[in-house]
Amino acid sequence: MKAFLKNYRQAPRKVRLVANMVRGKKVKEALAMLSFAPKKAAPGLKKLILSAVANAKQQGVSNTEALRIKDIRVDKGFTFTRFHPGFGGRATPINKESSHITIALGE
Predict the structure, then answer these.
(1) What pTM was computed for the model?
(2) Under DSSP, is residue 22 helix (H, G, I), strand (E, B) or coil?
(3) 3-state class of 9 per DSSP?
(4) pLDDT tier for residue 63 given thresholds of 50, 70 and 90
(5) From CA 28, how far away is CA 106, in angstroms rounded?
(6) Span 18-30, average pLDDT
(7) How far is CA 2 from the centre of its chain?
(8) Which domain range does residue 37 map to?
(9) How far is CA 85 from CA 3, 81, 82, 92, 97, in A?
(10) Any idea what the CATH number is for the domain that residue 42 is in?
(11) Count of domains in the chain?
(12) How many CB atoms are located within 10 Å of the residue 81 CB?
């Protein structure tokens, strides 16, 4: 009962704030918390949890109410490097980071 979200366009350290909030919670409780969380990563994580629940139903788990978020990992994805004009004719880099999110549900 796993689900993956690859190349999510937000820095991993910002996504980890929301991931730590729901780690170890029951699925129903985590979805309620994410509905009201004022962070950009909350809707993406909510959708990922719903995908993991759908995967559990597909595998034949009958009681989805008893599922918990057993493991949630946020890893660094690729980094876009863009350049912005700096002073003195120089170019200063801007790094646009992305994340890979892995979630595992258990009973």
Answers:
(1) 0.89
(2) helix
(3) coil
(4) confident
(5) 13
(6) 94
(7) 13
(8) 2-106
(9) 40, 13, 10, 6, 20
(10) 3.90.470.10
(11) 1
(12) 9
